[in-house]
Write a structure and sequence with these properties.
Layout: H1 4-14, H2 17-20, E1 24-30, E2 35-42, E3 45-52, H3 53-60, H4 66-79
Antiparallel strand pairs: 1-2, 2-3
């Protein structure tokens, strides 16, 4: 089993644009829903992505989390060219 820090590190490994583009990331466990909450923040934009356990397991296996990747791309698009 992995913890929030390990999952966060794996996500930033799979999506290196997170750090380069100034996107902050935080991961926490949601025990009620048996999932993970990935919080992405850039400037005044804040996005919570719920990552199901099976998707988190795939991330930890080195496979990209498609739905999370789409959220990251959307956040980058929404903040592109904006000044904070």
């Amino acid at each position: 089993m992995y913890n929030a820090k390990e999952l966060c590190e794996k996500i930033t490994e799979l999506y290196p644009e997170i750090g380069i583009c100034g996107i902050d990331i935080d991961v926490e466990r949601n025990t009620q829903e048996n999932s993970w909450v990935v919080n992405l923040k850039k400037g005044s934009y804040n996005l919570d992505h719920f990552l199901e356990k099976i998707d988190a397991d795939r991330c930890m296996d080195g496979k990209q989390c498609v739905s999370l990747g789409l959220e990251i791309a959307q956040l980058m698009k929404n903040t592109e060219g904006k000044q904070f």
